[in-house]
């Protein structure tokens, strides 16, 4: 389901080596104290080390006389390994995050800009867009993308800002006045302008976020904090259990070596999830990065898993970006071939995808060969904001095509055939956009421009519905058109004639019902909605304001990714839950290993609890502590990759995960401890 | 065990289940927003009480005010009861001329009855006059039960409400719980008991001539009224020392069945009240199912254990066909004794009709485990369900993450604050039971109270502190609890076990009430199906079991293993 743009092998040798050294560095108590479970492990490991060293000199006559010195030494070593393995897990995750960020830095410098020395200069120098700093001057000509946010300081040009505003008509941008601001990612359609860059896009924004990804200043997320409290509470409970057990043992006439009590404590406290918790968090961020999405905080990733409502822009997300001509609908008295020919001629010079699709449809349907934009005698009339029509003047007549109301204005209200209104309405009802064609102020008919719903999008929405997520299509279309497309795409709801205000209002309304909302956007006017949404994904091609307002940025500017982002968020939470459940369930088997081992000398009858048939008391305790340490290493890949996630309803997910991690957590350690015990006894370690 | 015993147990479970929706619906109306069911009769009394006390029933309280009212009321009750106990020699209605209760015992008893524990380090007929029994103990039986229900109702409101600052009014909940619920039920049950032969008088003790020609003093008193509320309100403090094993407390098979039913009836009914008040009765039944399964497991283990006979007795040539009858009333037998023992510790009731000390090791372990789990198998009135809610929050949090969402229960997100409060509540049981038991063992003067050598002695200590911390009040017997050390330490255990759970629970109610309620969707963790029931049972057993398994293995578990080999310990511990 989730594809990846780049993959770092789980145990990259370089990362592993670095992680090994940093695992040692993380033994610094100031670092350890951030993780209560591992901190307690380290403290008791230090305690047993002191006891071991003392016994080395005294020959083991202290209170630990019951335990063989070699066993004490081995248990002490495995306690330290437990701490180191936990540190290693975190270090590996951090290392992968750093590697990921480094590759990100390389890839994001691909677009280039033409930099000028001064406004009057004519020769330019090609530089990566990401290297531009505030104050730099760049020249942008027709067909080029403006490399960053800035002000026009010379020239005038029409700029296509549809990527940001959704408005397809190009706007005028000129130096001076309030029309001088241009936005990175928009395209100059005509003429040449000189732009003074006003922001440092690479450094001020992206790099700041990449630093976050590297995990250097990672803050704990809300669920992680809650989980840490739970783990700390359980650690306290087990401390009480082990400390009081000493008193119960003394009453029962049993002397327990301190090192055995320590071993019991460390196997009981949730070291597995405690050791892997931060690795899981870092890896979650990292999975997003591999997907070219940068989250500004772990909190946002977590929130993504909780999303109830997805707001999806129609254009580009649900439908292919452009409409395509699907049908010619002539008015009475005109045959469709004439209409198609007129439409073809009027569109020859039209470079928009819609125009090209009209040409293609006419040629395909009627096999027209003739005509190209260079035909002599043809004068093409380009689209202007005033007339909102385009067309061609030919010796045979002047042809115009345009929106319904503009053609009506062109031909005059009285010259509109009755059946045109019917066909226009039918097209709109079907979710299409009608364009009207006229020759010499006589209406020939309409062209049906159709939104093409992306293939397989319906199935994706069905999947989301199964996950309990409601999809809402947001579009500027009228309600009629919107309803038709919504039905075709299979979204749950739609917002037609959307304005930034209505979008914001919709988000607030959903949130008032207690729902969490995710959306993506790119325009400045999306900024309030992006900020209001619980997960706001800004497109990297979007405006600075949008990127600041969102809590994630998609470097590839692909709005369909919202769906994957939700899945990654869910996977992060599931990984935590699964490993917590596994860790707690593990304790049952550890009891059956250690409790009989501790007391069997005084009460041989308690050997009945040794259901695993472990070799001896010492080997049972040693095996349990070895299992406890090794399971952390064994689960590092799972922590980094996340538990496998197939979209499904909560009930079936819970059933499956309880079976795998709950029941598995009960059973696996029985097998694991038994196998280790066989090994320990075979090697004669005790 | 014979089929008659099984049939009685089955009958008991069926009636208990049938009573649940009846009582649940009634209580939902008592604590709901509308007029209470008996409003026409009791409404004027209720309103009169509010006017008398200057309470504005329409004024809702923030959880902190609710908690402050509750604490102040309970503190006042504790002081009043302590005063009565210390001064009883100068008070009327004391025909047996009981003297003042010693300070440490009075403190222990006052704490015991205000915390709904009813741990009795005294013997009723030998230590207390009628006035103290009636105005001291019985009053606390009512109001401590009403306090527990009030806390639960506040918590339920926390789940049911959204975006509010208040959780109800403690005074209203207290009055309504007492007036509409506990009083009418108690009157009905007391009349039933009187009909069956339980005394209700102010007479002096009767001296009788026995058949053997000996003299016997037969205690009298207003017993029926106190026995009714001690069963209904999960108090458990008997009028007479041997509690419901006494023929005057529990004279007939009918009283035995009815008294056993009221051990759990209200607590079971509250699960349905919960379901109704949160607007989804399936949620209540799911909790009922989880509790019911654990109850049945407990009954199964206990009756199985008690149906066996100690091998040492068989070796000595004793006929062991009747099962383990030591410490049991012959008229109740194995089935009804084991059933009562499990039910009374499942609830935080603590009344007994047999000597738990004389149970087989595993038979005695079941009541002990019930208390160690925090008495969440139905539990005390109110207390059982709000204790279970702590486990529900932990279960939802641990496993709920596995569905890929921030854990939520009934539309409320379970976040760091709730987990912190739940862990505070969860910590009281291990600290109280294990901590104070260990303290007992290391303080020689305290350890001297242990009667038996070997693992059974450890069981006695564990049982006493599990009973105190869990606010149960049943005793394992044998253990000499009436010493200054244990009177004080058990009082501490009872106070911790009561109020260090109530305060976090009320705080949780407050934070939940302030939250938004998320609408359920296909992505929401379903909490009403068998899967959740199984998960909840697993969490209760694993979390509770992990905490107490080491101690139990040195107590009843090893005692059982030793017993099967015929090994026993004699005399007092060294």
From TrEMBL, chain B:
Major localisation: membrane
GO cellular component labels: plasma membrane
Pfam families to which the protein is assigned, alphabetical: KdpA
Alphabetized InterPro entries for the sequence: KdpA (IPR004623)
Topology within the bilayer: Multi-pass membrane protein
UniProt subcellular location: Cell membrane
Record keywords, A-Z: Cell membrane, Ion transport, Membrane, Potassium, Potassium transport, Transmembrane, Transmembrane helix, Transport
Transmembrane region(s): 6-28, 66-85, 139-159, 179-198, 260-278, 285-305, 376-403, 424-450, 489-510, 531-552
GO function term, MF aspect, one: P-type potassium transmembrane transporter activity
Alphabetical list of NCBIfam families matching this protein: kdpA
Family: Belongs to the KdpA family.
Function summary: Part of the high-affinity ATP-driven potassium transport (or Kdp) system, which catalyzes the hydrolysis of ATP coupled with the electrogenic transport of potassium into the cytoplasm. This subunit binds the extracellular potassium ions and delivers the ions to the membrane domain of KdpB through an intramembrane tunnel.
Subunit structure: The system is composed of three essential subunits: KdpA, KdpB and KdpC.
Protein's UniProt name: Potassium-transporting ATPase potassium-binding subunit
Organism placement in taxonomy: Bacteria, Pseudomonadati, Pseudomonadota, Alphaproteobacteria, Rhodospirillales
Gene behind this protein: kdpA
